[in-house]
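Fill in residues.
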């Protein structure tokens, strides 16, 4: 099975710079196919949310018209032009060793033991699944961002949706398609060679954030076929409410005898509201803040006069005031 390599690049990977390395191969080369029918082609990615880094690495083995093989690699920060290296021509066995060496170096796995679409090894690249991309659905969607309160220095545009430029739109579309086939790739970081900024793209909340200024904007996709990507969730902004501390009410009078004092302390325990244990709020998209706990500020006498005490608490309160046994 022979696939025109130039068409392959257009449909699957959008690799840049091959023509500047070897113009003939960009139009006449084909991917080398293994005995199992799979092509020697890998799209790798490494995303680190802690350091806001996102890198790609393309690795392919190409064959020319005389069956000489080449190892082609293309790497860089996601969104950037990156660098390319073409090694060859070489015999198949030599090129295969070079290909497997690079693949193991980047993923920690041998080519024969590759895990396509799985989670990466620690500090290694993951081998992305490209089923949706290979189905010819790449770069069909159009992307827009919502601009609000634009600064006059930037042109002072009115609030509204504005289209991405072609390069940025195509880049985000690639991330969208990667997300369709690789479930955990929800958050990506795209570097712009033009502006020098890096943007955090969240495909769950459909937002982009400038990592330098922390300016956050909604984004949306229109046109093109819909793929299996979760719909954006609306995020409700809520403020955390601190609970007021609960104060225990004190007795309105003290008794001269030790028995009276112990009865008063017992009354406090009955009348005081139960202390509520604070629950930790889980990091979810929508946070429902519980109402603040009521604050007890009334004395026992005020509670008794307002009828807020239970029968038992009322009797015990009266016992602390007069030496009468109501249980007799």
């Amino acid at each position: 099975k022979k696939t025109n390599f130039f068409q392959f690049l257009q449909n699957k990977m959008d690799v840049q710079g091959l023509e500047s390395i070897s113009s003939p191969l960009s139009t006449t080369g084909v991917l080398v196919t293994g005995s199992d029918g799979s092509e020697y082609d890998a799209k790798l990615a490494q995303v680190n949310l802690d350091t806001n880094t996102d890198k790609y690495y393309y690795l392919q083995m190409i064959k020319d018209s005389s069956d000489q093989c080449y190892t082609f690699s293309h790497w860089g920060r996601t969104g950037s032009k990156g660098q390319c290296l073409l090694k060859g021509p070489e015999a198949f066995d030599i090129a295969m060793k070079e290909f497997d060496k690079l693949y193991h170096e980047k993923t920690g796995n041998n080519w024969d033991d590759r895990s396509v679409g799985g989670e990466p090894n620690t500090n290694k690249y993951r081998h992305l699944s490209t089923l949706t991309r290979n189905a010819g659905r790449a770069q069909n969607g159009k992307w827009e961002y919502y601009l609000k309160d634009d600064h006059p220095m930037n042109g002072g545009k009115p609030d509204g949706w504005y289209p991405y430029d072609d390069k940025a739109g195509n880049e985000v579309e690639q991330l969208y398609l990667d997300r369709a086939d690789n479930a955990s790739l929800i958050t990506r970081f795209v570097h712009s060679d033009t502006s020098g900024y890096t943007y955090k793209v969240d495909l769950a909340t459909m937002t982009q954030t400038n990592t330098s200024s922390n300016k956050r904007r909604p984004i949306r996709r229109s046109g093109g076929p819909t793929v299996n990507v979760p719909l954006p969730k609306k995020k409700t902004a809520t403020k955390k409410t601190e609970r007021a501390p609960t104060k225990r009410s004190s007795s309105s009078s003290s008794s001269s005898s030790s028995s009276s004092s112990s009865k008063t302390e017992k009354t406090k325990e009955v009348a005081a509201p139960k202390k509520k244990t604070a629950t930790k709020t889980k990091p979810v998209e929508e946070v429902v803040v519980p109402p603040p706990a009521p604050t007890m500020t009334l004395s026992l006498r005020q509670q008794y006069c307002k009828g807020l005490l239970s029968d038992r608490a009322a009797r015990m309160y009266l016992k602390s005031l007069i030496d009468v046994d109501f249980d007799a």
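Confidence is low (pLDDT under 50) at residues 1-15, 230-235, 249-272, 282-296.
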